[in-house]
């Protein structure tokens, strides 16, 4: 936006002799005589005399240029067409001040107010046309639309004498995309450059990271003592003798074998099988206590489990058969069997295949 010189509004302090002053207003200007902050007289071009009491009254003469002036407006994606394209428009507005008091006294920035009003009207006009229509006959339509919107400029103290549409163009990107993402033209360019770098990075060969050795994070022993040696490793459905490695499988078919945490020499003992890691815990001790406290039989590294969470005991049923029961011993987040929360301190019979959930961990009970 640019405007020609001299400035639209000038404020002068008249020179006085014994309270009297004589001022001359040139053609093409309107004068406002202001005394103590109040407009007391409007002055036309010519010679004017005024009187003010020294010290007691403060007087100013405001000159407003009433000649036809031009205002250049250049937009950068400020308007959106009917088919959602950003439109760039450059235009020159020829305007004239018709209400000097409104322009000089009541508006803090009259040029900015006029520019905003023209852009608002232009946005409405552009929004009614498609991109093809704008490129075809947009100049004629927009010029006439703005000249017909006289009320908007008159309310600001201006009259639009003529409008010349210089250029209508549009970016290659659909306007709705940039509008949703809230990008400026510079931000969009930076985004596209970053995207090209990502594409270049993707074309480079990917070096796989070194394999990570898996360690067992669930221990059935006191962590302050050395863990017992692993007696067997299960590979599929076959047992491999201690000290031997399981047969190699293809890299794409490697299966992580579960770890036996306790002795497996007694096949009659029930087991807990960790559902995510495949770790096996043999219920060789009774009662088997579970929780975060290191003194428990099965120590869980889980923030949602209590220090002393639950215990599993052996009991004979009505037929005299040894079976297992699980008891929640007052945990904070509860113990669940097949999705049902147990009543605190109330034993519940376990059946092979039951899913026990404690904190974030799930175990499958295998046994009678």
In short:
This protein is α+β, with helices and mostly antiparallel strands and 368 residues long. Among the domains are: 9-65; 69-169, 2-Layer Sandwich (Tetrahydropterin Synthase, Chain A); 271-366, Sandwich (Tumour Suppressor Smad4).
Task: Walk me through the structure.
It is a single chain. The protein is α+β, with helices and mostly antiparallel strands and 368 residues long. Among the domains are: 9-65; 69-169, 2-Layer Sandwich (Tetrahydropterin Synthase, Chain A), CATH 3.30.479; 271-366, Tumour Suppressor Smad4, CATH 2.60.200. The protein contains 6 helices and 24 strands. The chain has helices spanning 100-106, 110-126, 131-148, 150-154, 175-181, 185-202; strands spanning 2-3, 9-12, 20-25, 29-35, 38-43, 46-51, 59-65, 69-74, 79-80, 86-97, 158-169, 233-235, 238-240, 271-274, 280-282, 288-291, 298-299, 310-316, 322-328, 335-337, 340-341, 348-349, 355-358, 361-366. Strands 15-14-24-23-20-21 form a 6-stranded antiparallel beta sheet, with no helix packed on it. Strands 1, 8, 9, 10 and 11 form a 5-stranded antiparallel beta sheet that branches. Strands 17-16-18-19-22 form a 5-stranded mixed beta sheet, with no helix packed on it. Helix 2 crosses helix 3 (131-148).
């Amino acid at each position: 936006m640019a405007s020609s010189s001299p400035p639209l509004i000038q404020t002068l302090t008249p020179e006085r002799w014994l309270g009297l002053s004589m001022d001359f207003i040139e053609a093409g200007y309107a004068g406002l005589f202001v005394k103590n902050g109040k407009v007391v007289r409007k002055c036309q071009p010519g010679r004017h005399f005024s009187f003010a009491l020294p010290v007691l009254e403060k007087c100013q003469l405001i000159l407003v240029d009433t000649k036809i002036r031009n205002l250049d407006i250049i937009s950068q994606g400020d308007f959106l067409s009917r088919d959602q394209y950003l439109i760039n428009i450059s235009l020159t507005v020829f305007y004239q001040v018709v209400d000097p008091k409104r322009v000089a006294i009541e508006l803090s920035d009259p040029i900015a107010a006029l520019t905003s009003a023209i852009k608002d009207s232009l946005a409405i006009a552009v929004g009614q046309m498609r991109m093809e229509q704008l490129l075809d006959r947009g100049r004629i339509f927009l010029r006439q639309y703005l000249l017909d919107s006289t009320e908007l400029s008159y309310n600001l103290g201006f009259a639009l004498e003529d409008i010349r549409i210089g250029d209508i163009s549009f970016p290659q990107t659909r306007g709705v995309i940039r509008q949703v993402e809230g990008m400026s033209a510079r931000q969009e360019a930076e985004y596209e450059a970053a995207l090209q770098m990502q594409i270049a990075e993707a074309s480079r060969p990917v070096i796989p990271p070194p394999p990570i050795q898996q360690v067992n994070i669930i221990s059935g022993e006191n962590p302050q003592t050395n863990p017992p040696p692993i007696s067997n490793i299960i590979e599929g459905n076959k047992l491999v003798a201690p000290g031997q490695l399981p047969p190699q499988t293809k890299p794409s078919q490697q299966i992580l074998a579960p770890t036996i945490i306790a002795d497996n020499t007694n096949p009659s003992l029930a087991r807990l099988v960790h559902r995510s890691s495949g770790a096996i815990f043999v219920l060789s001790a009774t009662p088997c206590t579970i929780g975060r406290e290191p003194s428990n039989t099965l120590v869980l590294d889980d923030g949602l489990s209590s220090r002393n969470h639950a215990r599993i005991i052996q009991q004979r049923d009505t037929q005299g058969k040894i079976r297992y029961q699980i008891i929640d011993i007052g945990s904070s987040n509860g113990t669940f069997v097949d999705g049902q929360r147990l009543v605190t301190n109330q034993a519940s019979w376990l059946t092979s295949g039951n899913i026990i959930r404690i904190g974030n961990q799930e175990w499958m009970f295998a046994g009678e």
